[in-house]
Amino acid sequence: MKVMHTAKEMRAWSFEQRGAGKTIGFVPTMGALHEGHISLMRACVERDDVGVLSIFVNPTQFGPNEDLDKYPRTFEADCRIAEDVGMDAVYAPDARTMYPEGYATYVAVERLTDRLCGAARPTHFRGVTTVVAKLFNAVLPDRAYFGQKDAQQAAVIRRMTRDLDFGVEIVELPIVRESDGLAMSSRNKYLSAEERQRASCLSRALFQAQEMLENGEREPKRIIDAVRQGMCEVDIDYVELVDAEEMTPVERVEGTVLLAVAARVGETRLIDNIKFSAKA
Ligand code: PAF
Fold it and tell me: How far is the centre of ligand 1, averaged over its atoms, from the C-alpha of 17 (Å)?
């Protein structure tokens, strides 16, 4: 498996693959790989001729008081996992290469980033779209794979990709969960045993709401209230029921909706969601 550290090397490799008629699949990550990332890489290996994993803890998507410094960095172990899954290349630039002295250009998607995680983390999505645009320009993928756990991120990236004509197909894959339902996340490593137990109320509350939706409940307030009650053991940041593409609240459950939650468990901020499509 080839490991590259600069956009120049990465693009040269990708041009070679494209020249040989191969499709390039891309899994962007910040490392600390878990089963969620592995499911994305497996889909990439199955579908594309060659697969590229990026590992870059992107400083521009962290706010001033967030966990940039303590974010888990496990580069060697991540490379072993990627190789075992069958990825062909790792792109791992460093922060100075990505954001050199005098860096001044950002990509921002409007409206979709105002609510949910965007409300509490006002510069987060600008950092995500900027880095993903830069990674797309280096990797030149045909397809890029993202997890539904970050459903707002996936919607924002879909919109950026469409609006800026990147010509990359965005594939969103289901959340991978622990046996008690907790959504896999690199940040789960921060939880103490007691916090880990409380954290499982996020998915329990969402699954209960799923049942309400499946049984025909269409009133957002009743669903949101039930989820809030189910999450009484944690410090809720938001519970929102929104249109799955626009990220705006719905007055009634129609079409495809996203029920998304964020909460603090101790010092750790966790997110989770379900999507539901109501039949017309
Ligand atoms: O989902 C992530 O790990 C990151 O937000 C991403 C997409 C790799 C951008 O840094």
Answer: 24
| pLDDT lower than 70: segments of the chain | none
- Relative to the CA of 30, which ligand 1 atom is closest? 3
Asked if residue 31 has its Cβ within 6 Å of ligand 1, the reply is no
Count: domains in the chain: 2
Residue 20 falls inside a structural domain:
yes
Residues 6 or more apart whose Cβ sits within 8 Å of residue 173? 39, 40, 43, 145, 146, 147, 148
Taken in order 13, 87, 189, 122, the sign of the CA dihedral is positive
pLDDT digits (tens, 9 = 90+) for 65-80: 999 999 999 999 999 9
pLDDT the model gives residue 280: 75
The CA-to-CA distance between both ends of the chain, in Å, stands at 48
28 and 160 in one domain? yes
Query: Has residue 280 been placed in a domain?
Result: no
pTM for the whole structure: 0.97
| CA within 13 Å, CB half, 156 | 26
Q: How far is the CA of 29 from the centre of ligand 1 (A)?
A: 5
Q: Which residue among 132, 170, 173 is best mutated to probe the pocket of ligand 1, counting the most ligand atoms within 8 A of its Cβ?
A: 132
The rounded Å distance from CA 214 to ligand 1 centre is 32
Q: In this structure, are 68 and 142 located in the same domain?
A: yes
Does 279 map to a domain?
no
CATH number at residue 191: 3.30.1300.10
